Amino acid sequence: MTSGMTSNMTPGVNKATGKPAIISMRNLRKSYGIGTPVETEVLHGIDVELAEGEFCALIGPSGSGKSTLLNLIGLLEPPTAGELSVAGQSTTGLNEQALTVLRGRHIGFVFQFHHLLPAFTALENVMMPAIIAHGVATAQDEAVAHDLLARVGLASHEYKKAGQLSGGQQQRVAIARALSLSPRLILADEPTGNLDTHTADDIFALLREFNRERGSACLIVTHDPRLAARCDRRIELVDGRLAASTSVAEPA
Fold first, then answer.
1. Is the pLDDT of residue 23 over 90?
2. So where are the chain's domains?
3. Closest CA to 162 of 204, 104, 115, 196
4. Distance separating alpha carbons of residues 83 and 65, to the nearest angstrom
5. Total-model pTM
6. What CA–CA distance (Å, rounded) separates 25 from 11?
């Protein structure tokens, strides 16, 4: 059984689950080098939805377009064609300021390469989304940051500058930062790729906890079949096309 692959989608509602769609894509395409001899289309008409509260793995071979799709969903790059809606709002025609507001309101992003501010402490990095959103971090924002850093195993490192942390520690700070505002959607690009198995399991459990207790939908790019098997659904890209969208509990 597959789900979320129909192009005849009702805006705002995921037909497979009946829940509101946090992300809806129709014929989404992305090209680079437009108008040049090396113009290349990376994504070829993606039709898929992610419902509120879903926990999905985005899988596929290297070069299949997974990170590109994540960047489009995260409003970091515009699609070349097609329609993308976030939390029921079409992103077509939105200017950069409106996209930034929409992204900050609904999306937490865990990048593959951290993107922390090296001159700031781990604690300050985790509070940064709140500072950007409200102009200042409140005592509550700081308490949340302390709690998240403890839960990713970095309570003793929270006052260290990000540049003093190892790659794996920086990744855990990035995950705490993504969760700091309890986003409705968490996008994670290989969030456990630089972590040992034990820490990766702890991080996965934390993402699952936010998913189940706070209703945050999660879309996780991963090459780890063990992690993908523990998600609710696998969305598979092959050569920039949607190959399958399959409930993990059912035969692939």
1. yes
2. 53-77+95-247
3. 115
4. 17
5. 0.82
6. 10
